[in-house]
Amino acid sequence: MKTYITSAMVVTAFLLASCAAPGGSGAAGVKRYTSDTCVVTDNKLGSMGDPITKVYGNQEVKFCCKPCVAKYEKNPKKYAKNIR
């Protein structure tokens, strides 16, 4: 039983460490959005309440508010150049 618990703890620690690994990508190879501004309006994230984070394909994208999510989803190619 001790071996099982120890093994479970080691696996859990490994999984948590892999999620927090540096290098620009998060869980499952998702590229992090590194800018502190909204991809649509260039407003400072947090200036309109809690930022909204979405993942499209393998790219994380952050928005300042829900209306910006809708604008992005209507025309993602238009805002792709703002992703950093």
The total of beta strands comes to 2
Domain count: 1
Tell me the Rg in angstroms: 17 Å
Contiguous runs where pLDDT drops below 50 for at least 5 residues: 15-23
Output mean pLDDT: 82
Between the first and last Cα atoms, what is the distance in angstroms?
A: 48 Å
Structural class: alpha+beta
Return the string of H and E elements.
Answer: HEEHH
What is the helix tally?
Answer: 3
Strand content: 5-15%
- Strands of the largest sheet, in order across it? 1-2
Helicity, in percent? 25-40%
Give a quick account of the main beta sheet: strands, pairing sense, barrel closure: 2 strands, antiparallel
Characterize the overall form. Answer: elongated
Keywords:
84 residues; alpha+beta; two-stranded antiparallel sheet; 3 helices
Could you describe the 3D structure shown?
Mean pLDDT is 82; it is low at 15-23. A hairpin with a 2-residue loop joins β1 and β2 (59-63). The protein is an alpha+beta fold. The chain is built from three helices and two strands. The chain has a two-stranded antiparallel sheet with strand order 1-2. The chain is elongated.
